């Protein structure tokens, strides 16, 4: 298990830096071929770091725990710690709102997630299970514009 952390300044520009850093750490762990995992991880990093930067206005710490390349069935763990002890708020955004969907995305993408208070503030964490890539039937990517991915999910090609 490889562990790494990145200090995040209270600046919205840090979100992009955190995404690039997370993708590089995942590639260095040997999991670079799992595009679905990488895409989900980067989106989760983006949401949780954005929440920390925007809602607390304080520095944060991004931590990743990454299994090695052959670690099927193990989980990638992402954690963002900040100096604000307030509980995260799961909001229901209306169709026109430009915010308020971050924790809903985390809930939908992560296999598990939660948060804990600590002496310095709080930690919001989530985990993505690594799965062996299923063998796709021949021509599966061509059917109805969908591409099957791990976990039974399918995304429409647009």
TrEMBL record:
Molecular-function annotations in GO: ATP binding; protein serine/threonine kinase activity
CDD domains listed in its UniProt record: HATPase_RsbW-like
Signal sequence region: none
Keyword Manganese (UniProt): no
A Pfam family the protein falls into: HATPase_c_2
Keywords: ATP-binding, Kinase, Nucleotide-binding, Serine/threonine-protein kinase, Transferase
Superkingdom, natural source: Bacteria
Residue span, Histidine kinase/HSP90-like ATPase domain: 9-125
Methyltransferase is among the record's keywords: no
InterPro entries listed in its UniProt record: Anti-sigma-factor_SerPK, HATPase_C_sf, HATPase_dom
Protein name: ATP-binding protein
